[in-house]
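Loading example: each entry is read as two labelled lines plus one structure line.
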Amino acid sequence: MQNVIDAAMIYAGCRVDTSSELEDIDALVATYWPRVLRYVSFSINDDDLAQTITQDCFLKAYNGRASFRGDCAVSTWLIAIANNLVQDQVRLKKFQFWRKAHRTSVDVQEMASFLPSAERSAETKLLATEQVEGVKAALEELSVNQRRVVLLRFFEGMNIEEIAEATGMPANTVKTHMHRGITAIRAKLGAKALGGKETKASTAGKQGAKR
Amino acid sequence: MTMQGQHHLTDEQFADSFLGGVVPAEVQAHLDGCEACRQELNGFAQSMDSFSEVAMAWSEAQPTFSPRSLTIGPVKVVTSRRHILAHAGWVLAGVLVLAVSVPAIWHREHQAVAVRQPAPLAVQEDSAEQILQDNDLMQSVDVALQADDPSPFSEYRIEDLTGKRMKDHRGVRVQ
C-alpha cells in the first residue's frame, strides 16, 4: 500500500521560515539533483526508477514548499522526501517483480570511469576501482533498509539520530542495520583484498546481510 | 568491552567507530596502539569515500529534468457536459463525412473502371435473307435510275462516262 506523502509530514524536525531556496525550482534542481539521485539510485539499485523517484521528489518538495519551515538543511529535507518515496516503491509488489525481472542498476565499469584521473597514479586508480567495485558489490547484497542506512551515513554524513528521523526507524533499529551493513561491506572488502579468503568479518557479514 | 581474540576490535566496535558519535576511549586507545586495526579502519573509510565520490561524479553526469515543464500542473481533463457534447459533435461530423465520402469515392472508382473497359465489338454476320433484301433494293434502284431519269450530261450532249463506269461497276452483292 502506497503512503500518501505530504511534504509537511516529512521530517517533523524541519521547521524554519520559508526558504527562498525552495522558491526557485530550477536552482533547487541544479543544486541538489545529483545528491538526491545518488542516494536514490544506490538505495534501490535501479537507475531508471531512480530518475523517476528523484523527479517526483523535487516536484513534491516544490509543491509542498509553503508548508516547509525546516530548521534543517534543504538537502536533508529533500533526502527525507526521497527516502519516503523509496520506501513506498519498495513496499509495492510491482517493484519486487520488476526488480527481479528487469533491473538496470548502475554499471560498475561505467562508475569507474568517473574516478578522478588527476593526481592519481595508475596503481592508486586501480586500487580505487577495486574499492568502488567492492563497496558496490557489497551494497547490492544488503537489504534495502541496511543499504539506506549505510548510504545516509556515508553519502549524507547523517548520524544515528538524523537517520532515525529521516527514515522513521527507531534509533536502535538504525544502529542494528548499520552494524550489519558495515560488517557485510567490511567482509566483502576484506575477502577481496585477501583474494577470496574467508575472514571472521566476511563470515559474519554473510550472515548479517541476510538478516 | 571485548576485543576480537583479545587483540583487535570486534565487528561491533569496528562498526561503532563509524556511527558518527564519540569513539569510546577504550576503542580509541586500542586504535592508537594497533596498526592493523587502524589500517583496516582507514582502508574502510577510504573505500567508502571513494565510492561516495565516484557515485557523486556519476550522478552529476546523469541527465536532469526540466522542472518548468512539470510544474505547470497536470493537464486538466475536461468533463463538463458542454465540452463532452462539443467533442461528441465533432466525432459525429467526422463519422458522417466518412460515411458519405467513402461510398462516393468507391462508386466513382468503379464507374471509371467500367468506362475504361472497351465495349465488345459487334461482329454480326448478315443473314441470307437480309442479303437478298439488300440485293433486291439495289436492283430496284438501278432499274429506276436507268429507266426514267435522263442524265444531266445528255442535255448538253456529253457522254456520261462516270455514270457508265458506275453502272459497269454496280454488281450484285454475293454472300
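DSSP finds eight helices and no strands in chain B.
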